[in-house]
Amino acid sequence: MELPFAESWKIKMIEPIRKSTRSEREQWLKSATYNMFKLKAEQVYIDLITDSGTGAMSDRQWAAMMLGDESYAGASSYYKMKDIITQITGFEYVLPTHQGRAAENVLFSCLVKEGDICPGNSHFDTTKGHIESRKAIALDCTIDEAKETQLEIPFKGNVDIKKLEDTLKKYGDKIPFIIITITNNTAGGQPVSMKNLQDTRMIANKYAKKVIFDSARFAENAYFIKTREKGYKNKTIKEICDEMFSYADAMTMSAKKDAIVNMGGFFATNLQEWYDAAKIKGIAFEGYITYGGMNGRDMNALAIGLDENTEFDNLETRIKQVEYLGSKLDEYEIPYQRPVGGHAIFVDALKVLTHVPKEQFPAQTLAVELYLEAGIRGCEIGYLLADRDPVTRKNRFDGLDLLRLAIPRRVYTNNHMNVIAAALKNIYDRRESITKGMKIKWEAELLRHFTIELERVK
Ligand code: F0G
After folding, report:
1. pLDDT for res 365
2. Long-range contacts: 322-331, Cβ < 8 Å, 24+?
3. What is the pLDDT of residue 389?
4. In this structure, which residue's CA is closest to atom 12 in ligand 1?
5. 8 A C-beta contact, residue 188 and residue 379
6. Are residues 370 and 380 in contact, defined by beta-carbon separation less than 8 angstroms?
7. What is the DSSP letter of 144?
8. Which single residue of 44, 117, 157, 360 has CA 20 to 30 Å from 140?
9. pTM of the entire structure?
């Protein structure tokens, strides 16, 4: 008999979680104005709001924390971190920042000006926020197939090279860089193929443009290249990473994802000019260039985390768990963005809550239902997060409206996945009785979903 798959680690420390009653949850959610970010974590049973900074560190990472060098300048922890980043990415200049959006802030402060166009595949919300707040435009050139949630293609996060080339022709000098997000979070944690990275590089060269990778989940992207793309089966994850980054000029990194730390990030490049400009901003916003908002111990943990999570077994354990949840949803015929993404399942709310009008935010409504059903906290990646058009300030209802169930790394077991799937099934079974959604009571100017106040449509 073939042995079944099992995790490549065992558990050394646990953290209790608590169930609650439906009436408690009704009360808590109302007080949180139906905004999942405003719930207290202790009011949540299974927390799928993000896979960012929520992973479980390994014994090696915790051990490395004790050896942190907390020197203000030139700490050994910085050099340990820098060395592993250089080994994996080939980038020699490494500027630490306190998290991913800080790397975006530091870099875009140097590169983005009013009226610029920044094309790429789907920009993550903070990336888009940092571009739009500088009165520039984040132009999404993802392949159209990414919008068809039921279509199974291996690299749904890809850039549409024709759209990209048309953009480069049309906007020329207004384009400071191309930015590719690996994996493409907004499109469903969908990977970008090596071929697509190569093609992007070629087009960039043709128009003399630089390429940045938003690399939060680059290791998961490498896993998909290894398991889905021809010619990579026998390569190691580290070899694949080396090739991926050879097509980029620079990277921004939220280490809270694929480096499996609770906080941290960096900017890395081989362009001295970009590094020299960024380090001035880094000092002003983040801290001196060898710590940039991070403790020495955190840089040590980051170094180990990056090394561990660019190994196949760790990634396989992770992605197989997300796939397991996907297989349960298949069993219950619940529609989600196919195939299963790297870090999350994105439930297609428009196909689940077919009786809730788009203007009443179906994905947010589904998030509310799931929390009330079982204390599970997901995150809307849809019309609230899409925010208003930067020019007309109107809501945008043209894209996907998804409920993201992000799976923290090395945290929950497949029994938790069973609970999530069952809770969704219960909602799916009564979906036609859900006819009313949410409306906005108050919203902020920028990144509104974090602080938004909602109420139920009566
Ligand atoms: N880029 C991508 C692709 C991201 O997913 C994130 C964060 C960032 C940049 C910003 O990094 O949080 O360290 O400042 N994504 C989290 C999420 C918050 O839930 O997907 P950060």
Report:
1. 98
2. 322/189, 322/407, 324/414, 324/417, 325/405, 325/407, 325/417, 325/420, 325/421, 328/417, 328/418, 328/420, 328/421, 329/421, 329/424, 331/421
3. 85
4. 100
5. no
6. no
7. G
8. 360
9. 0.96
String of b and e for 202-211 (b: at least 16 CB within 10 Å)?
A: ebbeeeebbb
68-94, pLDDT tens digit by residue?
Answer: 999 999 999 999 999 999 999 999 999
Q: Does domain 59-308 have CATH number 3.40.190.10?
A: no
The answer, yes or no, to whether the previous bond of 339 is cis (omega within 30 of 0) is yes
Tokens 């595949």 found at: 121
Report the separation in Å between the CA atom of 345 and the middle of ligand 1, taken as the mean of its atom positions. 16
- Is residue 320 within 8 Å of residue 132, measured between CB atoms? no
Residues 6+ away with beta carbon under 8 Å from 220: 183, 189, 191, 258, 315, 318, 319, 342, 343
For residue 408, give both structure tokens.
Answer: 């923290």
- Kind plus residue range of the DSSP H or E element containing 47: strand 46-47
**Rounded to whole angstroms, how far apart are CA atoms 62 and 60?**
6
Residue 181 is inside which H or E element, if any?
Answer: strand 178-181
From the CB of residue 284, how many other CB atoms can be counted at a distance below 10 Å? 10
Per DSSP bridges, beta strands 250-254 and 211-214 are parallel
Residues of the chain with pLDDT under 70: none
Question: Does the C-beta of 126 come closer than 6 Å to ligand 1?
Answer: yes
Tokens encoding 66: 């004790």
**Ranges of each domain in the chain:** 22-51+315-456, 59-308
Helix (H) or strand (E) holding 17: none
- Cα distance between residue 31 and residue 231, in whole Å: 53
| Top mutation candidate among 37, 47, 52 for ligand 1, by most atoms within 8 Å of CB | 52
Residue 424 belongs to what H/E stretch? helix 414-429
Give percent helix, percent strand, percent coil of the chain, each to the nearest 5.
Answer: 45, 15, 40
Q: Is the CB of 68 under 6 A from ligand 1?
A: no
Q: How far, in Å, CA of 233 to CA of 321, rounded? A: 21
What amino acid positions are annotated as catalytic residues? Answer: 72, 124-125, 214, 216, 257, 449
In three-state secondary structure terms, 358 is helix
d(CA 221, CA 193): 8
- d(CA 307, ligand 1 centre) in Å: 20
Contact indicator for 279, 303 with CB cutoff of 8 Å: no
